[in-house]
Design brief:
The complex is a heterodimer. Chain A is an alpha+beta fold. Chain A is built from four helices and nine strands; from the N terminus they run βαββαββαββαββ. In chain A, strands 5, 6, 7, 8 and 9 form a five-stranded antiparallel β-sheet that branches. By secondary structure, chain B is an alpha/beta fold. The chains are: A alpha+beta, B alpha/beta.
Chain lengths: 164, 599
Amino acid sequence: MGRHIISLLMENEAGALSRVAGLFSARGYNIESLTVAPTEDATLSRMTIVTYGSEEIVEQITKQLNKLIDVVKVMDLSDGRHIEREMMLAKVRAVGAGREEMKRIADIFRGRIIDVTDATYTVELTGTGAKLDAFLEAIDPALILETVRTGASGIGRGERCLKV
Amino acid sequence: MPHRRLSLTAAGQSDYPHGFTNELIHCQFMEMTGAEIVVRCLAEEGVEFVFGYPGGAVLNIYDAIFKQNAFKHVLVRHEQAAVHAADAYARATGRVGVALVTSGPGATNAVTGIATAYMDSIPVVVITGQVPVPAIGMDAFQEVDTVGITRPCVKHNFLVKDVNELALTLKKAFHIASTGRPGPVVVDIPKDVTAHVAEFAYPESISLRSYKPVLHGHAGQLKRAAQMLLEAKRPMIYSGGGVVLGDAAPELAELARLLGYPVTNTLMGLGGYPATDRQFLGMLGMHGTYEANMAMQHCDVLLAVGARFDDRVIGNPAHFAREARRIIHIDVDPSSISKRVRVDLPIVGDVRHVLQDLLALVRQSHEKPDAAALNAWWTQIELWRAKHCLKYNLNGSIIKPQFVVEKLWDVTAGDAFVTSDVGQHQMWAAQYYKFDKPRRWINSGGLGTMGVGLPYAMGVQLAYPDAQVACVTGESSIQMNIQELSTCKQYRIPVKVVMLNNRYMGMVRQWQEFFYGSRYAESYMESLPDFVRLAESYGHVGMRIDRPEDVEGALREAFSPALKERLVFMDFQTDPSENVFPMVEGGKGLSEMILAEEL
């Protein structure tokens, strides 16, 4: 049961997202995260899906995705060298002595504090999912007020491109 | 992105008269209402029949239909039947079937038909009315999210919100439905879009960057496949609905005969290889023949063509002895390959093209099949065939359902189109009517939809008015769309209904007998109508046949010239205890069959 990160380009049509989401639920495939946004070409959206499954299942997933009429191209990024990033906004309690400590930890993780009040920081953090997890583990859970994550985006290294 | 460049320009305001008449069909640019565009597009596609049922959201389209005569509209009595009839028209002719229904309940009634076509990969375009664009999402009268409801059971669907997109969308719909692995496409058109005006232009052809079905197989794979086939000691050819849909039956037969290899067909593939040919081992699967299932299980090289190793065909993949043989799999849909059974040599492509290329390679090869090994293999197969697994007990005064199908084959000289519903009668029709030609056997294989038989027969008979069309059905299935006897009356559709009336939902009863201690929960059909008088009330001919000796005579009369123009409804009172054999229980392997003689 390997983790796979699949990127795809699809026509930027109404309902395109629901076709992908519906495919995963109808066929019982796992989705860990799914992100989607238009590309520099406004007629195309790019989607990144993180999924788990045996090699057979993941092969079926890519085939079924390719079969969707709106899908232009599919690439299993895990088949080659790639980079993935996820962004998290974490709103944390920052008071007293802990306020300085929170800033230090954010710095260590190369996070940026993007909103400040007397009692809170909102930290913007980018990295792999594991790095974001590590940040959350490094701070006292009682101090976490709220978090939001984008899910992973991925891209092939070097000349490996997903292009029409 | 060529398809975007084809987008039509927005229509300006003008007082151009947009009444639609047929003289306008070949004018290049002109303003039309959305409804006129729909009708015109169907005409451009060469549509012969539109099966439909009017309602509020499609009234503009019906008004445009009233003013044209390029195609004939067939008014069904329930939207489900509209889609089934269009589906059968497509199965029998190879052309795209078209259905037209209104929004809300019209669309939901059509869903069973759409899902049926989807499971069997049938090219159908279903046009559904929708509430006007501003009303969408307002829970308007007869509003339903048709695109959402049908999404999992269509090849693709569209909601057309702009009349300027309408013609292009319909072009895409026909293109997508009929190419690659075919399937149903739904085009949902809001009522206001059918009233709006646009300049009409219909592209001759279309290319979608996101959809490019593969035609030819990979050359290297083809070479390896030819090699593997010629090395086989115990070869087997297993072909499915893809050969029928892909019009590849002649190529399949040529390859099989050239090699001298045995052939089996799936339920959907019947007619893909001539059933009366010696190399044909019959249907395989849950109710397949002993010889076909045993040969599948014991072959060393399996050539699968346009088939998908589904559960009713190969049983439990864990019992399929995967490692014991090498499998070549030809299919136009890559997702059908290595889905349930891992294959050794996949070839993605149109089955006809791939088989043509394969034939050429086999012909060119210096190698020939191993004659001694093939002889030994045929000897083994003949031993399996000698079990005569389809024989049944003819004694007694009660009509055996198998006997009716055998007589139907005799009376129609094996040359009828046979539609069926779903259940025991379907399996008997598949087992005992020996289909020698493709597109003659019309049934719901994938979804298993009871009620398809009569609307299927309508679609086939309209496509081929002079053909013999028999609907083999049961007293339970027929009642699921029996209202279509009225449609048959209106359009004088002279199908012959062969009802095997055993007073039970026979297949349910069979499973209850085998697996539920003969507790026949709700499978007995009480309060049946007098089918003879029912048929007569619609102006048809009704017959009731109680004795075996009357079976052939009734069929001969029904198919006689005297009744050629009439629908004949034959109520055969058959043995209620008869079961379908052989049978592979769900979850078992193909060679673990229950045979009639073993009970």
